[in-house]
Task: inverse folding
């Protein structure tokens, strides 16, 4: 359905435009900032699946891409995407060179695919008198899924097993009930679990990647414009939210939806969030976001209480999304505006004391999933490197790579911080500063 009512730049392209919000650690703060998209077109969707690569799309065949978390956006429109295409959803795949964008021209719907970072686009799907609402990309394999409004009395449901090059609807018959239809971007996937929203007081759920579906009633809320769940593998993966004109929450994968108190007014254009990232708090730190009109709202307690977090300088938000880890968020608007948030899962100084020796502590917790904390000390100012390696000696993450003053530091490491989830096993982290070098091991256990 054509829904017309329907995220701290790493080089600080713009000044902080909102009040900072503090973690339980008072030394850590974060804020939303504005990024320069290079377009004034309505932006409708944003997605990041790998490293620093981010994609966004919008009206007028607009596609923009960044290779540095949105510090610089490059326009990769055209080259196979007609300027008349109104794009409403985008997902990326693998290293970030593959992306697929869905949209419509008149009464026909299309999906376009690039394998070379947007240099060229190929039409890989079309459906006359149809409307593709949303795409989902599984980061662990080449599987993709897309949902569309019903055509000929049945929902338009399609699977791909080759990273979106070909699509098949075999074995996925879901009949339309009455005149029900779906909503832009209202699809969420957790591995083989899929949820998509409707305008008919229900969410459709599949536990087997679309082979069969059940209806999950959203009593009291007709529209599920937005559907979001915690990522698979996290302790609260069965917790999710839907947003229509009101907010509802489920703690059992959607079997039951309960109305929630929310802040603001207007329809919910998107819901997103991050993992448990505060290690010294047994209740965790479960940050959630949603958008209504020109405001981003946040919750620090998994949706019990919501507060106004950031107001856009202009325009209204159309969608909010995060990278796979949930540690970085982008919210896009109807005037080309992009607001960016980078959660401070990073390095901070633990106290003001100057140590007398170098040291590298054992990470805590250990084993861990998905986030652990590493503390180290440097007695003199100098260049500090802290890197993580797998059992084969391959570098998987640079945590620190800069000059640091003498002091005691801690840094958080997430097993899902780069758009893909590291597997269970032994990993090593090495601290180097001047002639000092020390390595310790840690275990990811899922």
Result:
């Amino acid at each position: 359905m054509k829904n017309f009512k329907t995220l701290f730049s790493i080089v600080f392209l713009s000044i902080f435009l909102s009040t900072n919000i503090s973690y339980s650690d008072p030394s850590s703060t974060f804020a939303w900032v504005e990024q320069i998209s290079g377009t004034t077109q309505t932006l409708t969707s944003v997605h990041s699946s790998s490293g620093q690569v981010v994609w966004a799309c919008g009206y007028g065949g607009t596609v923009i891409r960044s290779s540095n978390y949105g510090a610089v956006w490059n326009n990769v429109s055209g080259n196979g995407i007609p300027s008349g295409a109104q794009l409403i959803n985008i997902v990326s795949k693998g290293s970030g060179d593959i992306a697929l964008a869905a949209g419509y021209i008149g009464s026909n719907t299309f999906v376009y695919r690039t394998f070379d970072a947007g240099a060229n686009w190929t039409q890989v799907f079309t459906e006359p008198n149809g409307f593709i609402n949303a795409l989902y990309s599984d980061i662990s394999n080449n599987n993709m899924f897309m949902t569309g409004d019903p055509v000929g009395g049945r929902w338009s449901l399609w699977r791909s097993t080759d990273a979106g090059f070909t699509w098949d609807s075999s074995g996925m018959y879901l009949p339309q009930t009455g005149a029900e239809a779906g909503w832009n971007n209202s699809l969420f996937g957790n591995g083989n679990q899929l949820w998509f929203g409707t305008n008919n007081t229900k969410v459709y759920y599949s536990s087997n990647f679309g082979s069969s579906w059940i209806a999950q009633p959203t009593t009291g809320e007709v529209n599920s414009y937005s559907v979001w769940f915690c990522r698979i593998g996290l302790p609260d993966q069965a917790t999710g939210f839907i947003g229509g004109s009101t907010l509802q929450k489920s703690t059992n994968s959607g079997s039951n939806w309960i109305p929630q108190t929310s802040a603001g007014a207007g329809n919910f254009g998107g819901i997103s969030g991050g993992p448990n990232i505060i290690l010294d708090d047994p209740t965790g730190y479960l940050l959630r976001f949603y958008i209504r009109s020109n405001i981003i709202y946040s919750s620090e307690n998994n949706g019990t209480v919501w507060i106004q977090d950031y107001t856009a300088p202009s325009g209204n938000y159309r969608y909010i999304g995060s990278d796979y880890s949930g540690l970085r968020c982008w919210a896009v608007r109807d005037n080309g505006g992009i607001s960016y948030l980078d959660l401070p899962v990073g390095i901070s100084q633990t106290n003001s004391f100057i140590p007398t020796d170098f040291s590298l502590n054992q990470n805590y917790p250990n084993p861990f999933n998905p986030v652990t904390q590493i503390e180290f000390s440097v007695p003199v100012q100098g260049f500090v490197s802290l890197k993580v390696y797998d059992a084969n000696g391959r570098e998987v993450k640079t945590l620190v790579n800069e000059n640091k003053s003498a002091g005691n530091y801690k840094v958080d490491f997430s097993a899902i911080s780069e758009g893909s989830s590291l597997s269970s096993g032994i990993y090593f982290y090495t601290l180097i500063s001047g002639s000092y070098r020390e390595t310790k091991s840690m275990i990811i256990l899922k």
Notes: DSSP finds no helices and 37 strands in the chain.
